[in-house]
Amino acid sequence: MTEEDIRAAVTAERSEQVDLLATLRPDQWDAPTLCAGWRVREVVAHTTMPFRTSPGRTLVELVKAGGRFNRMADRCARRDAARMTSAELLATLRDNVAHPWRPPGGGALGALSHDVIHGLDITVSLGLGRRIPPDRMAMVLAGLAPRNIAFFGTDLTGVTLRATDLDWCHGSGTTVRGLAQDLLLVICGRRLPPGHLEGEAANRFTR
């Protein structure tokens, strides 16, 4: 898995998201996503923020949020979603499919994970049935270090997450099965709609 491979996957993921978002109805842009409190437009405002905001401005926003990243991200996403139309948000993503942004300490693989996760926040909540290509999904899972998993604070005690479409599992205990992309969302603390997971402990991670 080379840097070039990862950057190509980032560009492909963003390009596919552009195509999908372009088909959404106005009411779908205002539909809730798996990100608590965020509609589709807030999620897109968040994923495109690095393309519109300089590192210096981001630092200012972080200071204004008392150094709390999640608070900053929420405040900026809500503000930008209110200021920008869906067409403007979509154009920003379209114009930056090859943008070299990397999250601090995350590298290109962190950028891919960021885009994949938030894309799933949209498509799973809307029931669009989009499947992330297996090779791209494998890249994201390969980049899951313990510190990444710990960041989300999800209680995975006593549970084995086992993918039904890839040779991948995580943890130990009662098995919860699902598509790799759905298990990724579980790790990220998302509550999935019914029918995405199987196993005795599946209800711990569903709505």
Automatic annotation (TrEMBL):
NCBIfam families xref list: maleylpyruvate isomerase family mycothiol-dependent enzyme
InterPro entries per UniProt: DinB/YfiT-like, Maleyloyr_isom, MDMPI_metal-binding
Source organism, top-level taxon: Bacteria
The Mycothiol-dependent maleylpyruvate isomerase metal-binding domain, residue ranges: 11-98
Organism: Micromonospora sediminimaris
Name listed for the protein in its UniProt record: Mycothiol-dependent maleylpyruvate isomerase metal-binding domain-containing protein
Pfam family, one: MDMPI_N
Recorded GO MF terms: metal ion binding
